[in-house]
């Protein structure tokens, strides 16, 4: 509605065809939720903010075809995203904002309840934190006696196939935090998490 009004104020006789599509997509999201949308449609919703006067459906479909899924687009390295024709700095920033928000939400959920109450919750947390990293990472989740997360720390970032681990440093940090349990997490960038 606001977008159409802006165009009419500029003297444009008719709003572009995609404005109706945007409204319908937003309405479906509000009424039926994210599960009612495909990955490319969810990407369209994110792209609407960054590219307000452009039909973003072809771009969203290109991104899914290139990276595979909504999650992989959002978590893709900035340099790879910048290679996509039509995807500028504003859109890439929106993607990284979504990624940061998702990461904080998951971390917040884990901090509110015992980490070990569900292994699937721990796996979801770890996927959010590092599943799409392009280099190997070694991270440590430090837990208290109730198995609640004290800290999540990235100990080492390595190359595409190697990340050094120093047990002495892990134990030293665990003692500093008074952690009673640890979860050691390691990814392999060449394989899905």
Description:
The protein is mainly alpha-helical and 193 residues long. The chain has 2 domains: 2-102, no CATH class; 118-186, Cytidine Deaminase, domain 2 (3-Layer(aba) Sandwich), CATH 3.40.140.10. Helices cover 54% and strands 11% of the residues. It has 9 helices and 3 strands; from the N terminus they run H-H-H-H-H-H-H-H-E-E-H-E. The chain has helices at residues 2-9, 18-32, 39-50, 57-67, 70-75, 78-82, 89-112, 119-130, 167-177, and strands spanning 137-143, 149-157, 181-186. It has a 3-stranded antiparallel sheet with strand order 2-1-3, sandwiched between helices. Strand 1 and strand 2 (149-157) form a beta hairpin. Helix 3 packs across helix 7 (89-112) and helix 7 runs antiparallel to helix 8 (119-130). The longest helix is centred in the middle third of the chain and has 24 residues, at 89-112.
What's this, in brief?
This protein is mostly helical. It has nine helices and three strands, in the order ααααααααββαβ.
Q: What value does the average pLDDT take?
A: 81
| Number of separate domains | 2
- What is the total tally of β strands? 3
**Fraction in helix:** 40-55%
The count of helical stretches stands at 9
Low-confidence stretches: 1-13
In whole angstroms, the N-to-C terminal distance is 42 Å
Tell me the series of helices and strands, N- to C-terminal. HHHHHHHHEEHE
Question: In this structure, how is the largest beta sheet organized?
Answer: 3 strands, antiparallel
Strand arrangement in the largest pleated sheet: 2-1-3
Structural class: mainly alpha
| Shape by Cα distribution | elongated
Specify Rg, calculated over alpha carbons: 21 Å
Percentage of residues in DSSP E strands: 5-15%
């Amino acid at each position: 509605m606001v977008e159409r009004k802006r165009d009419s104020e500029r003297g444009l006789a008719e709003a572009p065809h995609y404005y109706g599509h945007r409204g319908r997509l937003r309405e479906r999201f509000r009424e039926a939720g994210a599960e009612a949308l495909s990955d490319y449609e969810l990407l369209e919703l994110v792209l609407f903010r960054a590219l307000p006067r452009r039909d973003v459906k072809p771009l969203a479909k290109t991104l899914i075809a290139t990276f595979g899924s909504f999650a992989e687009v959002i978590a893709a390295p900035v340099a790879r995203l910048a290679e996509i024709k039509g995807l500028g700095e504003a859109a890439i920033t929106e993607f990284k904002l979504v990624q940061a928000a998702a990461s904080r939400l998951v971390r917040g959920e884990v901090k509110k309840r015992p980490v070990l109450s569900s292994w699937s919750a721990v796996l979801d947390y770890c996927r959010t934190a590092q599943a799409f990293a392009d280099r190997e990472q070694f991270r440590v989740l430090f837990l208290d006696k109730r198995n609640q997360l004290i800290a999540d720390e990235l100990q080492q970032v390595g190359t595409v196939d190697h990340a050094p681990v120093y047990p002495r440093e892990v134990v030293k940090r665990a003692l500093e935090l008074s952690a009673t349990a640890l979860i050691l997490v390691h990814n392999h960038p060449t394989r899905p998490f």
